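Forum: Protein Structure Q&A
Topic: Joint prediction for protein chains with partners

I've read a bunch of threads here and the consensus seems to be that you should model interacting components together rather than docking separate models afterwards. I'd like to see that in practice. Below is the full input, 324 residues plus whatever partners are listed. Could one of the regulars post the assembled result?
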Amino acid sequence: MADLDPVIHAQARLRITSALATLGPKEAITFPRLQEVLGMTAGNLSTHLRKLETADYVSVEKVIEGRSPVTYIALTTLGRRRFEDYTESLRSLLGGAS
Amino acid sequence: MSDFDEEPTGDEALDPAEMLRLLNDQQKSVSTQFGSMAWTVTATWGIAWTVGFTSVWLIDGLKPAFSIPEAAGFIVLGVVVCIAVIVSVIMGIRTGRGVKTTREEAFSSAAYGCTWSLSMIGIWLFGMALISQGMSPHIIQFYFSSGFVLMTGIMMAVTAAVWKMKSALFIGIWLVVIAAVAPFFGAPGNYLFLAISGGLVFIGFAIAAAAYNSGLKRRVQGDRRG
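Posted by a regular:
Agreed with the consensus. Here's the joint model:
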């Protein structure tokens, strides 16, 4: 289990990175939409996003659209690579299962 | 992001096999939530075709025991198809909400949306041209019903290619086949055939998809905290 990235290797953070990895490399998702898609509470999502942001796996961009502040979340290049490495490690650990 | 006074959950890991299953389930769940072929759109088209084609079939299909006026049958078909188009457009817009995309992706989505209208208008205009060249009222009954279903099938195949959705490809193939086969049932049998093979099959698919999606969502959210 030593090869599995501890930042991703937690249920909530794995769900977040898996969801973000379905977006294109230059795409981002708003915080409320990500919360809706994952069915997580705002507080819990914030907590885990902060851990991923600290590791530089996700970027959190705050912009003003119209007159409202909007927070966009995306996987960074490093985060996408780490997620792919994590998936690969899981598969090889399980003997090449898909 | 703001802070909330809440105990964080979902910090623990499962065994590797369970984690891989969670990863796959989560990605499938997100794809189905973002997919333009949401089960509500499928259900809407299923109901529209069942009601619409059955109405047209009822003009002559149960004569002399029962019949509805010709105008009423076609008006019902027109109204339900218009409602289905509006629902599809609204759902298509809603599924992409909250996602900041690239210019290339936005162009693909816009081109995809326009192709639906373009193809349907094309079938209609081609039909009008054939009528102006003497297409008989008997053939008209097959042309428009099968033409629109055929084009919907092709658009479903395009959906499969654009959104990488296998289910849309299967639906597309099915629709192309039933559109081609429908004229063999004669008129008005072709309308009843399309109502059942198109409408009811869509409703069945929508129910199965809804059950699958909600099961998937429950699995990734359910016993796993977070």
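Chain A touches chain B through 47 residues (CB under 8 Å).
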